[in-house]
Design brief:
It is a single chain. By secondary structure, this protein is mainly beta. It folds into 2 domains: about 10-120 and about 260-275, Diaminopimelate Epimerase, Chain A, domain 1 (Roll); about 125-255, Diaminopimelate Epimerase, Chain A, domain 1 (Roll), CATH 3.10.310. Helices cover about 15% and strands about 45% of the residues. It has 4 helices and 19 strands. The radius of gyration is 18 Å and the shape is globular. The relative contact order is 0.18.
């Protein structure tokens, strides 16, 4: 494949301090290698981010969010990333209006921008009856497996400090429960409609926020407290280290994620660096 001589332009933004580099590739010509994604996310030698969102035209129309974790690996979906992606495309003039469809590896998602917040349709959550356990050091807890569609192991604890420093990935048993890796959420209930959460994301480490993780945690919390099955939408506030998001579950099982999205910078990748990291 031949590549253009110029490097892509970018925007840098975050959703509740879960930060991303958005690469604008409206012609679909730049590509993105694992090495380039790792380099861009490096907080000392790159732009610094939890992930890269490459904006490329989708085959079915609209825009495809080519999401890469900071280690260069791909993921099915990113809730915070989708919010930043929507605002970045609008601010760059690639979409008109405040509503757009975002194509992801986990399916099509719809985003709606209202003021400083973005609401993303996250689809439905699925689970498994198979018992799952999470370990940190000598501590062990039962966990709820949830896919939205990223895989999550949601663990309820008495205090968020029980998760420890999270400098390495928690253990998840059995090994075959999540063959492609898993995000692990440690959750504390504050009230019937409010929880707090920390998360260790696969391919990244502990992050200040995780959109799909917040959705998984809220979904699991409602079932833990026996609140599911309402005929009217129910909203859970999810406090994360980087701020607050809100998850709404509709009567038909659809889940919405609402929260802020902030663009902080824009520019062009250095051509020599881009080629060197290809």
């Amino acid at each position: 494949m031949s590549y253009p001589t110029t490097a892509p332009t970018f925007l840098k933004g975050h959703g509740t301090q879960n930060d991303f580099v958005v690469l604008l590739d409206p012609e679909g010509v730049h590509g993105l290698t694992e090495r380039q994604a790792r380099g861009l996310c490096d907080r000392r030698q790159g732009l610094g981010a939890d992930g890269v969102l490459r904006a490329v035209p989708a085959e079915s129309g609209g825009w495809f969010m080519d999401y890469r974790n900071s280690d260069g690996s791909t993921a099915e979906m990113c809730g915070n990333g989708a919010r930043v992606f929507a605002v970045a495309l609008r601010d760059a003039g690639l979409v008109v209006g405040d509503e757009l469809a975002v194509q992801t590896r986990g399916g099509e998602r719809f985003a709606r921008i209202v003021g400083d917040e973005v609401t993303v349709d996250m689809g439905e959550a699925t689970t498994s009856p198979r018992p799952v356990r999470v370990t940190v050091g000598r501590e062990e807890w039962a966990a709820t497996p949830v896919w939205v569609p990223n895989p999550h192991a949601v663990t309820f604890v008495g205090d968020l400090s029980e998760a420890g420093p999270l400098t390495s990935a928690p253990g998840v048993l059995p090994d075959e429960a999540f063959p492609d890796g898993v995000n692990v959420e440690f959750v504390v209930g504050r009230s019937a409609d409010r929880i707090a959460m920390r998360v260790h994301e696969r391919g990244v480490g502990e992050t200040r926020s995780c959109g799909t993780g917040a959705v998984a945690a809220a979904w699991a919390w409602r079932r833990r407290s026996g609140e599911q099955g309402s005929e009217t939408p129910a909203t859970i506030r999810v406090d994360v280290p980087g701020g607050t998001v809100w998850v709404t579950e509709h009567a038909d099982g659809r889940l919405d994620l609402r929260g802020p999205a902030v663009i902080v910078a824009r520019g062009t990748i250095d051509e020599h660096w881009w080629k060197e990291h290809r």
